[in-house]
Amino acid sequence: MAVILKNHCLLIIVLFLCCFCPWRQINGYESLFHPKDILPLLPRQVSWPIINSLHSAVDLLPAFMGAASIEGNNTLEWKGACFFKNIAWLELHNKSKSQFGGGTLHIKVSNAHSWTCLDLYIFATPYRVTWDYYFLSREHTLEIKEWKSEAELEYVKNRGVSIFLLQAGMLGTLSAIWNAFPLFVNNGWGEKSNIDFLEKHMGASFEERPQPWVTNLTTDDIHSGDFLAISKIRGTWGAFETLEKWATGSYAGHTAVCLRDAEGKLWVGESGNNNDKGEDVIAILPWDEWWEFELTKDNTNPHIAVLPLHPDLRAKFNETAAWEYARSMAGKSYGYHNLIFSWIDTIDGNYPPPVDAHLVASVMTVWNQIAPEYGSNLWNEALNKRLGTQNLSLPDILVEVEKRGSSFAKLLAIPEQDDWVYSDGKSASCVAFILEMYKEGGLFGEFANSIQVTEFTIRDAYTLNLFENNSSRLPKWCNADDTVKLPFCQIRGKYRMELPGYNSMDLYPHMNERCPSMPPKYYRPQVFTHRAVLEELYNA
């Protein structure tokens, strides 16, 4: 009873202060507190719903403020989340008497909106990432005793030290961590968190379908080339797919393709199948084995739809060539090398705020320090190919880009090439594997040599005008138990799948090499829907 009274008294006091005490700056002076700063003082059952409504997992992402240059060059100025006036500059010195010397980063913060707030920062070069926070209105310093190499010294001389702000502050960042954690949890809480994220940040809808949620399908109605769109919404893979969907605008996170052999047996080709060693590889599995796993062993609650090829294209599909390609790729590693490059087509038109190329470079730097072998697999080789170099590490790649007078943003936007061969062979993500098979099978026709399928996201694939457009030709079991008749056949899942833009885009040269994709609408400018205009653009 005493605890309840104490909480009630605290709640009344805090609410009184919020309602009657001024918290905005008055005559240039900051107030004692901001309402958001005292939320933790409220009882947890009151404060956390408010805090969570103000922040989401996206608030974990820092925003690039700029680069602090050497003193005497341009001084960096910006507005923080707590301190509204901030300036920074870099001082080079050799206090450590080392080969390359060191430096001091000066950050002067002022004009705080309250006495109880603080700003969290991340500081980065291609060779290091560190962090600090500032609570007091004054000049702060960050000491760098020694640059790691001459290359780092030359980099900071020319480009400075990058500064990132965690815009949600300490409380918001902790709340964001709390919101991000359940995305990876494999239970109902995790599923709800992924759904809430996609609804909030993409505008996705999750309408429940009438039961049964698994279709009693007849495999005789599934043919070679039919596309399988898959969406996982819980667990580790569900979380990664959620982030992939948010970044790319795809409403599915994984894909596979159907193939029939000469005896008529149905198979599934899949890049990203987990083998007995725990490796993600390209595999060709009997349909019954693949479907049994999805029904009984896949704990990510997958939602699956069959996207039947158009009959005219099915008649053109060269199954022999498709099988030859599929067998040549079987057993190879999943296409991690070109995974992120299918998403990034432009300098600044593909990054959901506050993400940009600076943040991507810093995340890569952190990852490179924690697990360098994974960094090499995910991007180092691909970045080297774009530079025309070999075996450069990520820091050396970033320095080399600056030496050439270019930028990392421009490097990321260079289109992937289907004929690039990596250290472990050709690289094909789940969707690139299918589309390359379509190319080999003759479905791309005259555009086969002018389209790089490794530039396609899953959204780019299911919006291609390649699929059945006459609902009367869909199998009888297709959506038979659903009150809404989709233009494709959902065969598993509690929620009705949606694929915006499905089956609407004609092929054109250099397709999906320069396309922006900004959430939540992922608007595609009109110029990227007219083939003649695009041909003129690329031939100019």
Please give the alpha-carbon distance between the first and last residues: 78 Å
Q: Uncertain regions: pLDDT < 50 for 5+ in a row? A: 1-33, 38-42
Number of extended strands: 16
Strand order of the largest sheet: 12-11-10-9-13-16
Structural class: alpha+beta
Q: What's the main sheet like? A: 6 strands, antiparallel
Q: Assess the beta-strand content as a share of residues.
A: 15-25%
Residues in helices, as a percent range: 25-40%
Mean pLDDT: 87
**What would the principal axes of the Cα set say about the shape?**
globular
Integer-rounded radius of gyration:
27 Å
Protein name: Inositol-1,4,5-trisphosphate 5-phosphatase
Signal peptide: 1-28
Keywords: Signal
Question: What do you see in this structure?
Answer:
- There is one protein chain.
- By secondary structure, the protein is an alpha+beta fold.
- Helices cover 33% and strands 18% of the residues.
- It is built from 16 helices and 16 strands.
- The strands form four sheets. A six-stranded antiparallel sheet has the order 12-11-10-9-13-16, with helices on both faces. A four-stranded antiparallel sheet has the order 1-8-5-6.
- A hairpin with a 5-residue loop joins strand 11 and strand 12.
- Helix 5 packs parallel to helix 6, helix 10 packs across helix 11 and helix 11 runs parallel beside helix 12.
- The radius of gyration is 27 Å and the shape is globular.
- The termini are far apart.
- This is Inositol-1,4,5-trisphosphate 5-phosphatase.
- It comes from Solanum tuberosum (Potato).
- Keywords: Signal.
